[in-house]
Amino acid sequence: MLSTALVARLSARNIHYGWVVAGTTFLTMLVVAGAVGAPGVFIIPLQKEFGWSAADISGALAIRFLLFGGMGPFAAAFMNRFGVQRMMLISLSIVIAGLLLSLGMKHLWQLVLLWGVVIGVGTGLTAMVLGATVATRWFSQRRGLVMGLLSASTATGQLAFLPLLAGLTESHGWRTAMLLVCGGIVVAALVILLLMRDRPADIGMPPYGGTAIQPAPSQPASLGALLATPLIVLRDAARVPTFWILFLSFYICGASTNGLVQTHFISLCGDYGLAAVGAASMLAMMGLFDFGGTLASGWLSDRFDNRWLLFWYYGLRGLSLLYLPFSDFSLYSLSLFAVFYGLDWVATVPPTVKLTAQRFGPERANIVFGWIFAGHQLGAASAALGGGLSRTLWHSYMPAFIGAGILCLIGAGLVLLINRGRQPVLSPA
Question: What is the pTM of this model?
Answer without folding.
Answer: 0.72
